């Protein structure tokens, strides 16, 4: 390392004679490069804006030299790191490095990958973060050994067809800070994916195929425009960390309560008022929900309206009751009416009496304290849970912490 005061136009004599400099730090003044013997300078820090053009030229020279050095290594070259070199075009010479395992080109000006990228079949880590890419390119599907892919901080608004087909070894995908409005269904083919982060995009929905990523351990979807989470999220049985900060989510699905391994849930800054029944049974260690308009326990007196069930509801409740009694005739008959059987399968049970109902119920809220094992948001004293009652008769027999919901 060399560090020195302002010089008027030349390298210090020690620097000019050295061919083994790893770091040059210069604080101001003009600096001209007359010496060509410095072959191994890796990092240059100059705190003077007047030197920007010189630094760009020097960076280009050093980039070319680093590539030449890598090419001399041929198949023995395993790692190339060219961060912040102002590279606008990926070097086509990459095809001459078949043994490359790590390619780090973040913080450059690359808007398109070169076709030769597809020859790097032994590559395990690719970092193209903070560039100018507008899509996840098709060439990436040929990187069949790839395990970690960083594409954060680009302008990506689409994912080329077929990209996920060849990425069967991928375990980590980072697409933060892009412009994605949707994900293709084929993302569900990334069977080995354990970490998926798509923060700061414009997603409005999550395809159900994401819920087929059975090895997914951590999912980040902060700062998007999600309205809801699919019920199929219950299939992510290995999920430990789920981040949904600053979206437009109104309701959490009941399937979330089936994530037995979930340890951290962050839903801060959404529009959630109530949680699904069974939510309090989650084995969480951390739970954050600040910034949501949660129901609070402020009971008021209201007159119960008269409810008259429809003929469909009366019939459905009769059929459901007969199914509970194992009525063989009803069970046999339903096989000939698949549409009715499908509707019946959507039935719910009253929390108090346990009787089934189809489409008419009384929505209530039950307030329960959060688990003592949870690390929680400040001021969260009671968790509002959504419960369904089959009738006002059951409502009259409710417990002291169960209330009807008044629509203002």
From TrEMBL:
InterPro entries (alphabetical): Leu-rich_rpt, Leu-rich_rpt_typical-subtyp, LRR_dom_sf, LRR_domain-containing
Transmembrane segments: none
Source superkingdom: Eukaryota
Alphabetically ordered keywords of this record: Leucine-rich repeat, Repeat
GO CC entries: cytoplasm
Any one Pfam family match given in the protein's UniProt record, by short name: LRR_8
PANTHER family: LEUCINE-RICH REPEAT-CONTAINING PROTEIN 30, PTHR48051
Protein's name according to its UniProt entry: Leucine-rich repeat-containing protein 69 isoform X1
Organism phylogeny: Eukaryota, Metazoa, Chordata, Craniata, Vertebrata
């Amino acid at each position: 390392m060399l560090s020195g005061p302002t010089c008027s136009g030349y390298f210090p004599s020690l620097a000019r004679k050295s061919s083994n400099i790893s770091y040059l730090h210069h604080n101001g003044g003009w600096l001209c490069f007359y010496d060509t013997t410095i072959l191994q300078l890796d990092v240059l820090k100059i705190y003077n804006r007047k030197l920007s053009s010189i630094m760009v030229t020097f960076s280009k020279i050093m980039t070319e030299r680093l590539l030449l050095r890598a090419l001399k290594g041929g198949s023995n070259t395993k790692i190339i790191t060219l961060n912040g070199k102002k590279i606008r075009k990926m070097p086509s010479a990459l095809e001459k490095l078949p043994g490359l395992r790590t390619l780090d080109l973040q913080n450059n000006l690359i808007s398109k990958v070169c076709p030769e990228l597809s020859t790097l079949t032994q590559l395990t880590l690719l970092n193209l973060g903070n560039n100018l890419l507008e899509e996840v390119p098709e060439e990436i599907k040929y990187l069949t050994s790839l395990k970690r892919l960083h594409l954060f901080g680009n302008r990506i608004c689409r994912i080329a067809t077929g990209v996920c087909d060849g990425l069967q070894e991928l375990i980590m995908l980072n697409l933060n800070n892009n412009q994605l409005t949707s994900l293709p269904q084929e993302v569900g083919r990334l069977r080995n994916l354990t970490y998926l982060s798509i923060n700061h995009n414009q997603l409005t929905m999550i395809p159900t195929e994401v819920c087929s990523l059975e090895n997914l351990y951590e999912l980040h979807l902060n700062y998007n425009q999600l309205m809801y989470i699919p019920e199929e999220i219950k299939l992510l049985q290995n999920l430990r960390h789920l981040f949904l900060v600053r979206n437009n989510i109104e309701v959490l699905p009941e399937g979330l309560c089936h994530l037995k391994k979930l340890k951290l849930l962050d839903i801060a800054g959404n529009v959630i008022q109530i949680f699904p029944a069974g939510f309090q049974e989650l084995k969480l260690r951390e739970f954050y929900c600040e910034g949501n308009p949660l129901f609070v326990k402020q009971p008021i007196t209201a007159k119960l309206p008269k409810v008259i069930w429809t003929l469909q509801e009366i019939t459905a409740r009769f059929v459901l009751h007969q199914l509970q009694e194992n009525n063989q005739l009803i069970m046999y008959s339903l096989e000939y009416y698949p549409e009715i059987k499908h509707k019946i399968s959507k039935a719910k049970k009253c929390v108090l009496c346990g009787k089934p109902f189809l489409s008419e119920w009384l929505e209530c809220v039950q307030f329960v304290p959060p688990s003592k094992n949870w690390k929680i948001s400040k001021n969260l004293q009671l968790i509002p849970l959504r419960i369904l009652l089959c009738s006002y008769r059951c409502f009259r027999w409710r417990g002291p912490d169960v209330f009807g919901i008044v629509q203002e």
